[in-house]
């Protein structure tokens, strides 16, 4: 038997599956009815204990194609029931076998509805998955003495640059915890992608002569990566930039806006977002615990372009003068709807327009000289 102990003293007792190791992390919940493999392998969940609100997880197994990273960063999985006998033509192993192989602990047979209500009421909090043999008082002492991580991006970013070759536009993709879905969208469009570590300087990025820069998703507080904020600040105005999730928040901070932690965040595949430029509403896939503060945009060169229809939080930004835009959600989905994959095409169109403008300006300058 295992127990999940929250820092407020709440205890859930259930059956263990996956790895037998103990784990401490921040408890969050995901509302998706499917896509658990992509969620578990999303680097943005590094350091967290995922609670799935859907009552049955693992019913279609684990397959080779739906991973968002090779080595998942999630610290634990919490479910009402996990399936030991999945049924799907792509199934290759059970969720229990997968979590064992990746040394990720899981706990099942607990009231995930009650747990989710606690998180919604009190916000995300630290918790520990451990054996029922360990006294709750001891667990609470450990939780009190263990701070939450603040180096998540460093842990999930690539160590060295690498190239995914293509014949199209040259994109530098800054990896803050990149999902493979972003790479898939660029390779579909035959882009030549160079993936670089999170701490790569603006000088190093520009030396690669990219046509555009993509800022990826990633875990944690955007203020924990000040080097990334400085790099983006130096890149704005020099090259087209597109930011997703953490990349979106970093663009805001680099433009002198502010961010703050949400009570329990947005994590699911059915989040409605309204585009203020077109009036259209999209259903989006989201995973974030921080958001850009709307009022902080007033003294910046950014404008609000999209909002959440659930809580009116900031979901999209566009720079007023430079080719820079960002979204809080995941247009590459995985899991979730593909309503907003067109944003990658818009980014490439922005790059093409920027190049034409630069060429025209250069020709005008030559004529004047």
TrEMBL record:
Name a Pfam family for this protein: CPSase_sm_chain
The GO terms describing molecular function are: ATP binding; carbamoyl-phosphate synthase (glutamine-hydrolyzing) activity; glutaminase activity
> What residue stretches are annotated with the Carbamoyl-phosphate synthase small subunit N-terminal domain?
1-130
Reactions it catalyzes: hydrogencarbonate + L-glutamine + 2 ATP + H2O = carbamoyl phosphate + L-glutamate + 2 ADP + phosphate + 2 H(+); L-glutamine + H2O = L-glutamate + NH4(+)
- Explain the purpose of this protein: Small subunit of the glutamine-dependent carbamoyl phosphate synthetase (CPSase). CPSase catalyzes the formation of carbamoyl phosphate from the ammonia moiety of glutamine, carbonate, and phosphate donated by ATP, constituting the first step of 2 biosynthetic pathways, one leading to arginine and/or urea and the other to pyrimidine nucleotides. The small subunit (glutamine amidotransferase) binds and cleaves glutamine to supply the large subunit with the substrate ammonia.
* Subunit architecture: Composed of two chains; the small (or glutamine) chain promotes the hydrolysis of glutamine to ammonia, which is used by the large (or ammonia) chain to synthesize carbamoyl phosphate. Tetramer of heterodimers (alpha,beta)4.
Its family? Belongs to the CarA family.
Record-given protein name: Carbamoyl phosphate synthase small chain
Protein source organism: Halobacillus faecis
């Amino acid at each position: 038997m295992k127990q999940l102990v929250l820092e407020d003293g709440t205890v859930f007792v259930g059956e263990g599956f996956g790895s037998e190791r103990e784990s401490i992390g921040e408890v969050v919940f995901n509302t998706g009815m499917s896509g658990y493999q992509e969620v578990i392998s999303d680097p943005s969940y590094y350091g967290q204990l995922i609670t799935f609100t859907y009552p049955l997880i693992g019913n279609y197994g684990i397959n080779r194609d739906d991973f968002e990273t090779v080595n998942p960063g999630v610290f634990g999985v919490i479910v009402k029931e996990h399936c030991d006998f999945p049924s799907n033509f792509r199934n290759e192993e059970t969720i229990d076998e997968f979590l064992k192989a990746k040394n990720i602990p899981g706990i099942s047979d607990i009231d995930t509805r009650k747990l989710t209500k606690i998180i919604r009421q009190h916000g995300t909090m630290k918790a520990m998955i451990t054996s029922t043999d360990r006294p709750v008082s001891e667990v609470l002492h450990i939780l009190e003495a263990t701070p939450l991580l603040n180096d998540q991006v460093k842990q999930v970013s690539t160590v060295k640059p690498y190239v995914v070759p293509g014949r199209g536009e040259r994109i530098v993709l800054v990896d803050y915890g990149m999902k493979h879905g972003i790479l898939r969208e660029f390779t579909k469009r035959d882009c030549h992608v160079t993936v670089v570590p999170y701490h790569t300087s603006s000088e190093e990025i520009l030396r690669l002569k990219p046509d555009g820069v993509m800022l990826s998703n990633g875990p944690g507080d955007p203020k924990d990566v000040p080097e990334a904020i400085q790099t983006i600040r130096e890149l704005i105005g020099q090259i087209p930039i597109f930011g997703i999730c953490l990349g979106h928040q970093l663009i805001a901070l680099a433009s002198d806006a502010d961010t703050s932690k949400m009570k329990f965040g947005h994590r699911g595949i059915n989040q409605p977002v309204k585009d203020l430029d077109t009036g259209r509403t999209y259903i989006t896939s989201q995973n974030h615990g921080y958001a850009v503060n709307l009022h902080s945009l007033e003294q910046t060169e950014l404008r609000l372009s999209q909002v959440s229809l659930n809580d009116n939080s900031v979901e999209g930004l566009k720079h007023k003068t430079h080719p820079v835009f960002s979204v809080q959600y995941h247009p590459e989905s995985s899991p979730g709807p593909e309503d907003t994959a067109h944003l990658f095409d818009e980014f490439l169109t922005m790059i093409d327009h920027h190049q034409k403008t630069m060429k025209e300006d250069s020709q005008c300058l030559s004529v004047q000289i």
